[in-house]
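Researcher: Here's a chain I'd like modeled. Treat it as a single chain, no partners, no ligands.
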Amino acid sequence: MVPRMKKPLITLAAIALLAVVVYAADLSGTWIATVQTDAGNGTPTFVLKQDGEKLTGTYHGQFGDAPVTGTVKDSDVTIEFDVSGTKATYVGKVDSAGTKIEGTCDYGGQAKGTFTATKK
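Model: Modeled as a single isolated chain. Structure tokens:
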């Protein structure tokens, strides 16, 4: 039998473990993004492969094609790539289902905005 004082701690530990499991979604796959920046809008496609916290893959959009790298830690996602001599950075959060990422993007200070990406 678990003493009364330890029951809340066990419950809290179980909730924390569930929170970690919820954000353990695999981001591998094809993502269609809607991007809105101060310099225009676009709908790039990302094909991502996740290995632990590491992301690799490709970007395909109006600036051409480029390899991407990034990280995913809990719900925080960062994707980076170089296109047309500019380093692009996307920073966002993945939803608990692992099917939607929302955040901000910066094209080397030349254009900044927001994005929403949905897993295909």
